[in-house]
Amino acid sequence: MIEKLPRSLQELEPKQARFCLNIEKFGNSKCGSEFAARPVLVGVSGGIDSTALLVISTLLTSKSGGRVFCAHVDHGLREASIEDARFVAELCSILQIPLESVKIDVKRYAADNSIGLEEAGRILRYDFFKSCLNKYNADFLLLAHHLDDLSEDVVMRLIRGAGWPALAGMDAYDSKRKLLRPLLSTSKEDLMAFLNSFGCPWREDESNHSMDYTRNRVRHKIMPLFYEENPSFGSGILRLKNQAELDEAFWACEVDKTVSRVEDDDSGGKLIPCSILDNCHQALRMRVYKVILDSLGKGHALADSLFRLDQAYLARKSGSVVQFPGDKEVAVSKKGLLFKVIKSIDRVDGKV
User: Fold this and answer.
1) Which structural domains are found in the chain, ordered by start?
2) What is the pTM of this model?
């Protein structure tokens, strides 16, 4: 049972009040506005992280004039999930926060779409969050990913072979999805101390200890080794993330300037003339290739294929073609590189 929760920053110990304000400062710096002064939707499972986020969001919006709404998803994978839903409902009742709660059939969706449980849960969860954002006309979706999650995400991306800057982990802010992670610079240990400071309980998800999930194997088997070698590993990851954001902002500007000079071809494709490519560093060329390919439709361009394309261009293999997923091709000619989408029956010889 939840006995009492703070309703204003003034009810907290000074240390915990500063803790909340620092989280607000971080969130504001990432989204470029005062998120606590706006209507926000908080995704809450009932665990330590999301419970802390809901309380913190309530305190900050009370100070800044915003409004909090809560969304809870029962994935139907655990018997205890019923109690999780009840806990979140009680939490919202005490905080006087509107709650949207739904139970989804993750197993069935995964089977029907031939995908894993984690992916199925993520798709259904974000679909529900999107509908709640629209219902309440909320400006931000707040999720409780924290510094430990960021560190795990970086290691998982390293295992999967991700490249820079994606290697630096999940973003604190995604404007397209209105998604903000204000706890991304905060450790789980500090969130636990925050809740314990006023006796707030939370729910434990026993599936977090199952080795059937990649993230749990990384969390329980790999991460302790990193922290054993470097207790400040999480702080280093945060610096890496900040550097990645700076790099990404710089390259986005350079790529936009270059892509704006790309020409439309009579065949319906996109032509990058040699006069542009010859004045670009390879790092810029690779990024331009990917942006143009992505603009042509679905299909993820892998790094190895982008390197092959660049090698073909540098070798001036006129007439050769590099293929990409989504029926995309890039042809090397004396004029430059021609990017286009073609039908399978129209493919020609000479591919790299």
Assistant:
1) 9-244 (3.40.50.620), 261-346 (3.30.465)
2) 0.85
